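Could you join me in thinking about how sequence relates to backbone shape in a protein? Label the sequence line and the structure token line clearly, so we can match residues to local backbone shapes. Once you have written the record down, we can walk along the chain together.
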Amino acid sequence: MDETYENNPVGWQCSCGTDNAATSRFCSFCGKPRPVTVDSQNPASTEVKTTRLYKPQSFETPDRELKATPVQQRPQMSQNWQRPQQSNWHAEQPATHPSQFQGTRPVPPVRKKHKARRIVLISVLSLVLLLVVFVATYFTTYALAKKAADKRNYEQAEKLLFLNDLTKLHDPDLSDYVRALKSLDTGDYETAIQSFEKLGDYRESEQLRKEAVYRLAEKKREAGKFEDSSALFEGLDAEHFSDSADQILETKYQEAESALQSKDYDAAIALFSELQGEGYKDAAARISDVKYLQAEDALQNKNYDLAITLFSELQSDNYKDAANRVNEANYQKADSLEKAGNHNSALALFKKLADANYGDAATRVMDIRYQDALDLSRQGKITDALSALEDLKSEGYAKASEGRETVLNDVRGKTEEGTYEFLNFWKSEYEKSGDNRDREYYLLSVHNQLSYISVENETSLPPDYEVPGFTSMSDFYYALKNTSFRDRCEDQCYDFTRFIGNWRCSNFSLEVTRTGSGGYMIRSIGNFWPKYPVPAYWKLYNHILAFYRKDDNSKIDDVYYIKYLSDDEMDLYIYKTNQTYRMTK
């Protein structure tokens, strides 16, 4: 190496920023070779490119200002100098310690530990930077999470609290608070209440707990658990929930409505009555509504007394058509009583309704009276029955005449069966009407009664009897002793008053006359008349004209069947020819 260059006191600075001794061929820090550029025009002029050359004026410089040494003042290199081979350049030119330079600033020796320290320093600084970034990021997200929690945005708060374990170190209740908010928002109020109770006075936990209680009370009310709902509302203070008292009343109102829907009318009325005392909503009107529905339900279930009572209460308040429904309840009750046979009670109710001109109550009154008259007839109270029917007839009841005929037919049937209990009745009827038919049943009643009189004791006969068909009591007594009185009496009286006369038709005629002895004679003109080889007599009983043997009173044969159409007309059936003829008197 050229001596001029070797003794050059000028140091150089590497591109990495490290100051090196002038004799150093490589950077003591990064190991890069010293860059050198040789001017081809002036080989003697050598300039270190990309470096800052300097020569300190003195180590004693007060301001420690370093100045570069001009190139012209530097030692000149020999023009014949050539760079040695790279392979042995370091060996041929050993480094000169900067302390050898006189009057210049010493350059510190190169230390190999600088690189490792720098790497460690950079790593530490990086870790610190990462830690700072992490801490800043965490506390930023923590602050945002608190803000979201304050706004009750639990979803965003959950996302921001990504390190719950770390958060619990400095704010252990925040994550529980967020979960409690989630329970509150999702409707799990019982869990929310328990969570907020555990949190105590953390943030707005107490207020949120009360809100959860409020919402739980509403939820239970909607589920029909009214007692639990009222208890929860009562536990809330009016300072934070001003409508808690109204909510208690509303719960009771909905409980009353629920009771009404389930047809628990008494409970509904009791609850609405309590609300009426508080003046809540339309509780007073709802009481009337419940009573009306209860009355209708009672009427449908045939609980007439309850229906009448409730409708009567509503009638006094002029509620809807309560007055008309009272009458309907009474009508249905009267109808039920009539069907049960309690005519007296039914009649009293129908009369009350008839006075109010309700429906066909007046007609129902007459119907019951008509049935009562028929019942009197069946009880044997014929006079009372006919009297009742006469009253109905005078009042314009259409069935009265039909009923009277029904009663008379019943009496006729019983008289024909042999009873004499209607003797006085028939006698009275005959005296009033003069009708031969009434006289016939009167005579038949006499016969029926006399048939029960002992024929052994003559004194048992009534002394004032005028026995029809006999001129004296002795004749009648003789008939009792010597013949069947019933047959004898039937021969003499049953329907013969109507049979007496001349009856004609296109084919033949019958002549029926009464004999002087009180008997009757029948003569047939133009018609078959039977002849019997034994002594015989005829008798008329139950519309059948038949011949009987005189010796034993046994029947020989039926001759005619007589059916009266009126007093002047009859149908005559002949058993022998099996023919019927219309006969006119």
